[in-house]
Amino acid sequence: xxxxxxxxxxxxxxxxxxxxxxxxxxxxxxxxxxxxxxxxxxxxxxxxxxxxxxxxxxxxxxxxxxxxxxxxxxxxxxxxxxxxxxxxxxxxxxxxxxxxxxxxxxxxxxxxxxxxxxxxxxxxxxxxxxxxxxxxxxxxxxxxxxxxxxxxxxxxxxxxxxxxxxxxxxxxxxxxxxxxxxxxxxxxxxxxxxxxxxxxxxxxxxxxxxxxxxxxxxxxxxxxxxxxxxxxxxxxxxxxxxxxxxxxxxxxxxxxxxxxxxxxxxxxxxxxxxxxxxxxxxxxxxxxxxxxxxxx
Length: 296
Prior knowledge:
Elements (H helix, E strand, L loop, with lengths): L4 H40 L1 E2 L1 H15 L10 E3 L9 H8 L1 E5 L6 H14 L1 H4 L2 E6 L1 H5 L4 H9 L3 E2 L2 H10 L3 E6 L7 H17 L4 E6 L13 E4 L4 H10 L8 H7 L2 H13 L8 H12 L4
Parallel strand pairs: 3-7, 3-8, 4-6, 6-7
Antiparallel strand pairs: 1-5, 2-8
């Protein structure tokens, strides 16, 4: 080895040059990796789950007011069925059709489920998507297009591919609220066809439907149809006492108030009345009609 001062100085210069070149190559490699990642997201799409969950939790929280909720359970529309927690039933069956009359709490139960999945996302790893089916009635697009419209603001790159990947990974819990809101018969048939295709193709995802009894004829299958339990008499009595009203109602009123909407109307009328006299059934039905059918 030549160990002259000149050669040693030259070696140091060469080493510094090589070290600097290595740093530049590492830097360029990192840029290439970042660009490849960005390109992959653009091509395959990327769904920002955290941002979506936070937004949905805020909006579902506005609809699901904890203080207004009374614990309800679902039971299957067959003899001998036992009532169970609605989320447990959805996770067990993957497909749930919740039937009930107007005002019986179907939509409220839906928002409760969405709220639960958002709050406990780290446990269930399911992304809830809420689709009010009145939008399907008014839309010219397919069911997938409507689902895509709910999720697209949270997608980067190819939104269709990003959402398809969530289906493939069985990460979605889809809530279709109000089959009875699809009035046009052709639209209803189209919806049932698309929903059945979706459930057949992506059957490891989760599907929750709500409908009034008289607008559903098992078009989504004969099994896995459920009903909500009534409000318990003790729950009604405790709530009325909490509001400063008389909880000792006649049995006929308790039977009527087992429907959550009737109870909501009835208790507001009871609390508002200065003399605290009992109202009659006709008043409740009149109030119910005014709230639900007058402008429809």
